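Troubleshooting: if your tokenizer reports a length mismatch, compare against these two reference records.
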Amino acid sequence: MSDPILRLEGVHTDIAQYHILQGVDLEVPRGAVTMLLGRNGVGKTTTLRTAIGHWGTRAGRILFDGEDVTATKTADRARMGIGYVPEDMGIFSDLTVEENMTLAAVSGPLVPARRDWIFGAFPPLRTFWKSPAGTLSGGQKQMLSIARAMAEERRLYLIDEPTKGLAPAIVSTMAGALRELKTQGASILLVEQNFAVAKALGDHAAVMDDGRIVWTGPMSELATDAGLQERLMGLSMEAT
């Protein structure tokens, strides 16, 4: 792969006494969707949190757009153009939807054209713009969580299980918004347990096991090879 937008080289991450990432080597290509897959507890969320700077590395390097950001603070990585959507949504329940979005625009006020694009991607946010975020449904909160990362254009989006526990109609809305991000030229690293979504959105795939990347390749190859799926993850996407 030539000139990836994100590269993790031999990254080790500890959380308390636990050695979670054990030499992760990962490249995320530009302008494409890379699916980070694997069974629960293998280090996918820790990989995203390490990439955005929530967790420090014990060893290894993280390069964003060719620049070593291993020691760079999370806020500075955001200013460089990395958006992050955590699994726990990370919204401020006591603030309105508008206030949540305003805080997310790290480079300045929310641009009206960007706001209108977000309204098109997630229509409920227009309806509840002045409402406290805590009053939204679970699916609407997830929309807001993703929209906050989209408050301004980012070069790379790190997104952790955006469709988890959501109704099919909302999953479809989420997938449409992520597909639109891709058409805008954004790069996306996406952790996703819904394999129908993974197959529909993914260009590339990286599979984790025991804190390491154990396979990388085209998403289409993984999606059509049931034996490979079983060997890497102990499951078959054909059953999903």
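Reference record two:
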Amino acid sequence: MQNPAAASAASDFADLPATASHGPLRIEYRWVNEAAGDAPLAVFLHEGLGSLAMWRDWPQSLCEQLGMRGLVYSRPGYGRSTPRAHDVKWPVDFMTAQARDILPALLDALNIDMRQRQRMWLVGHSDGGSIALLYAALYPEALAGAVAIAPHVFVEDISVQSIAQTKQLYETTDLRGKLSRYHTDVDSAFYGWNDIWLNPAFRQWTIAEELPAIRKPLLAVQGHDDHYGTMAQIETIAQRVPHARLVKLDACGHSPHRDAPRALNEAIAAFIVQQRQ
């Protein structure tokens, strides 16, 4: 298993200019499976407490199986990217801003042109899955397809309850110390995510209305034992995006790439290979 410190040491950084929605940002990123040369690109979007290093070696293994290149990065506030200032709260539409502004700016900074974007697959987990869905809806021609793993489409009671329990664990157990291995400013990363999800105003958040704009192939994956969301999440996707394909994994929680990596990889590979035919 890849050492987190080694993954961080191998990181590169991209500088994004300030815009109306954010100040200057320094984004930690890394290419994986570069031996694939000019193959299509897979962009990995991490979960709400994730980072580049927390993916460990899964992006590499998936890209090797697919014969694709990979781009893994830490979103602002996470990993070694620009931390969230402690007096700044994420807005209710923070995932939309990530999809609309941050991801396209990073692609621009890395010289990923429209030709490459039209062959690009997004692979997002949890909050990252929601961001992948939003990007696919906002830029329906600037990708080849998307894989949304345990995405959030609306807020469920089970999500809020589990996130509140995670806050208690963070403040009373060694969870903070474990996460500090992966984030330059662990409190910035944790409370940026935790505070917005526990904000009463966030209970009304939903991206269901945006989903019908998705035109490209879409795979949505959920574990039956996910304690952060129910099957209603991906079933809502299927209702709004009729061409979406659903995969429901047994003996799998919120992180299929850790809980059921073989089944997940096989599902993703079969789906993408079918789209290439």
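Descriptive notes for reference record two:
- Residues 24 and 56 are 27 Å apart (CA to CA).
- The two ends are 34 Å apart (CA to CA).
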